[in-house]
Amino acid sequence: MDEVTASRGKQDGRKSGGGGKRRQVAALPWRGEGEALRILLVSSRETRRWVIPKGWPMKGKTDFAAAAQEAYEEAGLDGVIADKPIGEYEYLKRLKSGAAKLVKVDVYPLQVTGEHAAWPEKGQRTLEWMTPVEAALAVQEPELRDLIARFAAVELPVEERPAPHPAPTPVQVALQRLRRRVTALWGRYGR
């Protein structure tokens, strides 16, 4: 795929049209075919949940090139990345300020052709190659789970498939944090 002739993507996490949601780009790393198909998941740094490599669009790079760069930085991967996303999903991102913001993520499949022994975030994340069903069931975001299953053309077991539930809203997250703080203070001073 020729990056030079590809159209420029959205840059710097710009808000998408009208909704006020920020956008990120992600790589869906895969290798093998048929029964040997595997998907690579990485752990997030803060919550340690299973995710795919993702980040904000990068100035001077197309969105798919930025997704490939994230795959290198977070997992040490090289490969051939598609220049069009296969889908998108939403998740709630905790910002440095402590606030939570709904982010929409465009997902680009990355056929992995090489893995580095060292990379920028080595030691900060856990990496694991999984079957498509394992990967789909390991992620928390229902839309990402379904996207992985569609990409791999697999059916998820009905008995193991969790009922989809939306990510908590920023207000719900703020109330949960407030409840934890009050409980901690009550335990400290309430006795």
UniProtKB/TrEMBL annotation:
Its cofactor is Mg(2+). Residues 1-27 are annotated as: Disordered. Keywords: Hydrolase, Magnesium, Metal-binding. Residues 20-152 form the Nudix hydrolase domain. GO terms for cellular component: cytoplasm. It comes from the Bacteria. The keyword Magnesium applies. This is NUDIX hydrolase. It comes from Caulobacter segnis.
